[in-house]
Amino acid sequence: MNRPSEHRPAILIVRPPSQASADAATLEAQGWRAVPFSPMRIEPDHEALRHLNRQFHNADAVFWVSPSAVETAAPHIDFSDGLSIHITVGQGSRQALAKFYPYHIICPQEGNDSEAVLALPIWNTLKPGAKILIVRGRGGREWLRNALNQKGFQVEVAEVYFRRPLTPDWQILAAEQPQAAYVTSAEMVRLLFEQAPDRFAQFLRTLIYFTHHPRIADALREAGVRRIRMVRRADECVVRSDE
């Protein structure tokens, strides 16, 4: 198959559809032809969202685990008093939350995971037995919840969305002939390769994958990917001239 006439290399954005547009603009500015390619969609849990505002106002601090958590839950919360302490897992979640909460948001300067969040000094300044609300999707990782319980905090979880498989248009791979992919969760890696027909799975394994976390890199290796680049953000996705 011949490559498209557009001379810029194509990069797949392997993220939920609602999050692909901002990354697309960033990657296009870096010289890529950005191609959204999501194997998962976010489905709100409406029952959980009905109880969310009560949970929110009972909490002393709220931890947001992802941009998806923010985008799903924040429209259902009354932020008007500005009293809660807000903590996000990374800069992407912080930027998403800032659209709803125009006050100080705590976020690790380095690292994008629960371990980096636990290292923040905020946990040493909260009162003993403080109530912590974790806003996440169904079946999220329990590590931070367990660690905060061990510190004596009262931890409640609001699981506000489901992750649903979404079948990509596999013919996009043939049409665009991507050179790389940008992926931000191990769950996305798993769903991508579980759904891929054999001939497309083999092609996907040949791409250069940009990601920000070692756990995602491990998931890629388990899927048979060998060319992995660690980056902090989408604007660091650069292919060397000899590749």
UniProtKB/TrEMBL annotation:
<dbReference type="InterPro" id="IPR036108">
    <property type="entry name" value="4pyrrol_syn_uPrphyn_synt_sf"/>
</dbReference>
<comment type="pathway">
    <text>Porphyrin-containing compound metabolism; protoporphyrin-IX biosynthesis; coproporphyrinogen-III from 5-aminolevulinate: step 3/4.</text>
</comment>
<protein>
    <recommendedName>
        <fullName>Uroporphyrinogen-III synthase</fullName>
        <ecNumber>4.2.1.75</ecNumber>
    </recommendedName>
</protein>
<feature type="domain" description="Tetrapyrrole biosynthesis uroporphyrinogen III synthase">
    <location>
        <begin position="24"/>
        <end position="231"/>
    </location>
</feature>
<dbReference type="Pfam" id="PF02602">
    <property type="entry name" value="HEM4"/>
</dbReference>
<comment type="similarity">
    <text>Belongs to the uroporphyrinogen-III synthase family.</text>
</comment>
<comment type="function">
    <text>Catalyzes cyclization of the linear tetrapyrrole, hydroxymethylbilane, to the macrocyclic uroporphyrinogen III.</text>
</comment>
<keyword id="KW-0627">Porphyrin biosynthesis</keyword>
<dbReference type="InterPro" id="IPR039793">
    <property type="entry name" value="UROS/Hem4"/>
</dbReference>
<keyword id="KW-0456">Lyase</keyword>
<dbReference type="InterPro" id="IPR003754">
    <property type="entry name" value="4pyrrol_synth_uPrphyn_synth"/>
</dbReference>
